[in-house]
Structures are given as structure tokens and as C-alpha cells.
Design goal:
Helices cover 34% and strands 20% of the residues. By secondary structure, the chain is of the alpha/beta class. The strands form two sheets. It has a seven-stranded mixed β-sheet with strand order 5-4-3-6-7-9-8. Strands 1-2 form a two-stranded antiparallel sheet. Strand 6, helix 5 and strand 7 (208-219) form a beta-alpha-beta unit. Helix 1 (62-76) packs across helix 2 and helix 8 (282-297) packs antiparallel against helix 9. It comes from Paraglomus occultum.
């Protein structure tokens, strides 16, 4: 469950559109070269920006990947016991979006990490799964994860990892120019529009070394191929989040502009991938739609029910999910990466 900060209040919320709220994790898998949505591929199946079919079968490898990785980390003792539904959901979201992207980051950091001695910071690390996987792959680099909730491993973990209970709004406990790579994803439910511009981005760039990369990953809560009821409900939720929380859930038109305001940055990049939801996309699509539903249900208080009582709100969500099942829907996952200039 995530936390929304606005106007001195904290609301428990989650995600909509398969997005994970305020925490995030990442993992390392075979990297593909950054490309446009029209050129992406996933295993033997394909997700493109064209009208071609997106097909995920139950045995397409996604479920196997998830179960193998969960078992691997549980056995190694790197994870909290996989017993709470939310932690389990966070881990599965991690593997799901790694699956959609085919890798864990788009910044050209592979060579730097392979050489070793690099310092990496992950903001809102959640259970720490992205750090745990990357730290296992790049054992000569040091990885630091921060989160306001201590879901991450406290004792049994790779020697090149560190997890800290930190709230970014209190400032990051690091010196200027500390990290070679700063990574953050799925934080849109945690930050107001003002937070992004006045606190978060300046603080992330402060601790980033000259020549280092900052990478952000967020999903737009825009459902493509949606039905009329889904569109109406989604737009009501988006507007309520803007009006009541000052939180923007369609960031693809904002983050590039915000980053462009920093003269210390160069090499601005933006890439996207389709993230399908619904049974038509197989097991991964079913999970994604279930995550959408879970998030929408838990946003009731944050959006004041969009004018509906609790029973009406939940009934509307059920109807929206039914409508989504009858369509080949998807949302877009976005990555933004920039380099800090060497002065």
C-alpha cells in the first residue's frame, strides 16, 4: 500500500493501471537496446505500437520467471518471507514490468556497472528486489536503497547492498555528487506536482555525480482500447487526484518538461512500452488487470469516491473490470533518462 503526501496529509492509496505506488523495485535481465514502442519484442511474443496482436499464454514464461525468481530469493534469504499479499504483489509487479521492457534500465550504464566500483541509488526501493538482483549481477558495485517503509531486507542481503529508512522530503542523507546512477520508478502516487519540481528532482540531481545518469520510470494512467464506462471512471479518478491531492497520474507530458528546466542536464531520452491488461494477454494480463482493480479499490478515500458512496464505487469498479475484459486494453509504461553534465 502506498502513501500519498499532500497538504500535510498522508493518505493510504495504491495503484491503478498496474502501477506500483510509492515503492518500487527492479531487477536485472537481458538488456535490449532502447527503442521505440514499435520495435519492441518480448520472448517469442511481441508487443508493438501497431495493431498487431499481443499474446501472452499461461505458459509463456512469465509465470515461470516469477516463480523461479521468488523461490531463488526466498531460498537465498534476500527477501522478507513471501507471506503478505502486498509484498507478493510488489514482487510480481517488478517481474511483470521487467518482462514488458526486457531489461531493468534503459540508461547506458551497462559498461560502467560491469567495470565495478560504481555507486547506485534506488529511491522508494520497497522490498528491494531491483537492488538485490542488480547487486548479484554487479558484485563490484555498491547499491543503496531507500524507502519510508522498511519492507527491504534488514540482515540477510548481499554485502554490496545497503537499505535505509529515509523520507526524501526530509532530504537525502548523502553528500553532493555521490552516486553514478540514480534510479526511481512507480512514485507518482507519492509525489504532488509541487513535490516533483521543488523537492524530488533537485534532490535526486544533487546527489548524482557529474557524468552520471538519472532514470525515472512511470506509467501513464491512460487506458487504450478502453470502453465508455472505463474512460468516464478513469477520467473522474484522474481529475479527483489533481483537484484533491495535487497529484498528476499522466506524467509523460510533464517529466520531460520538468527535466528540461535543469541546465546541468544533457542527453535527454524518453522511451515507452505497452503494458497489456486483461485475459486476452494471458497470465500477465490477468495479473495486470487484477492489480488495476486492487489499486482502484484502495483509492476510494483519496478521490473521495468520485462522488459515489462506497457501494456504488465498488460496483462501478466491477463493471469497469468487466468492460476491460471484453477489450484488448493496455497502458503505456515510460522511462526517462538524462545525464548530468561534467563541469
Amino acid at each position: 500500500m502506498g502513501k500519498v503526501y499532500s497538504k500535510g496529509k498522508v493518505h493510504s492509496v495504491s495503484v491503478m493501471g498496474g502501477v506500483q505506488r510509492l515503492r518500487r523495485q527492479r531487477s536485472r535481465s537481458p538488456r535490449d537496446s532502447p527503442g521505440s514502442p514499435s520495435s519492441q519484442s518480448f520472448s517469442s511474443n511481441s508487443i508493438t505500437s501497431t495493431d498487431s496482436e499481443i499474446s501472452f499464454d499461461e505458459d509463456d514464461g512469465f509465470k515461470t520467471l516469477v516463480e523461479q525468481k521468488k523461490a531463488q530469493f526466498a531460498k537465498a534469504g534476500y527477501m522478507f518471507p513471501i507471506c503478505e499479499k502486498e509484498i507478493d504483489r510488489l514482487q510480481t509487479l517488478h517481474y511483470m514490468f521487467r518482462y514488458f521492457w526486457g531489461n531493468n534500465f534503459s540508461s547506458p550504464m551497462e559498461g560502467v556497472l560491469a567495470k565495478g566500483n560504481a555507486k547506485i541509488l534506488d529511491i522508494g526501493c520497497g522490498p528491494g528486489i531491483w537492488i538485490l538482483e542488480c547487486a548479484t549481477t554487479y558484485q563490484s558495485c555498491s547499491f543503496t536503497g531507500i524507502d519510508i517503509a522498511a519492507l527491504y531486507p534488514s540482515e540477510i542481503k548481499p554485502r554490496n547492498t545497503e537499505f535505509l529508512n529515509v523520507n526524501i522530503f526530509d532530504g537525502l542523507p548523502f553528500e553532493d555528487n555521490t552516486f553514478d546512477f540514480v534510479h526511481q520508478r512507480f512514485m507518482m502516487f507519492a509525489y504532488t506536482i509541487d513535490n516533483w519540481q521543488e523537492k524530488v528532482l533537485p534532490e535526486l540531481l544533487r546527489v548524482l555525480k557529474p557524468g552520471g545518469y538519472l532514470e525515472l520510470m512511470e506509467n501513464d494512467i491512460v487506458w487504450y482500447e478502453e470502453g465508455p464506462l472505463s474512460r468516464k471512471f478513469r477520467e473522474q479518478v484522474l481529475q479527483a487526484m489533481r483537484d484533491l491531492q495535487n497529484i498528476e497520474l499522466v506524467l509523460s507530458s510533464h517529466i520531460p518538461e520538468w527535466l528540461s528546466r535543469f541546465p546541468c542536464l544533457s542527453q535527454h531520452h524518453h522511451d515507452s512500452r505497452k503494458a497489456p491488461f486483461g485475459s486476452w494477454a494471458g497470465g500477465v494480463g490477468k495479473f495486470h488487470l487484477t492489480s488495476n482493480k486492487w489499486g482502484a479499490v484502495h483509492m476510494y478515500d483519496a478521490v473521495d469516491g468520485v462522488g459515489l458512496n462506497k457501494e456504488e464505487y465498488l460496483d462501478t469498479i466491477e463493471k469497469v473490470m468487466e468492460e476491460c475484459e471484453g477489450r484488448k486494453g493496455y497502458l503505456m509504461s515510460h522511462r526517462y533518462w538524462v545525464r548530468k553534465k561534467i563541469e
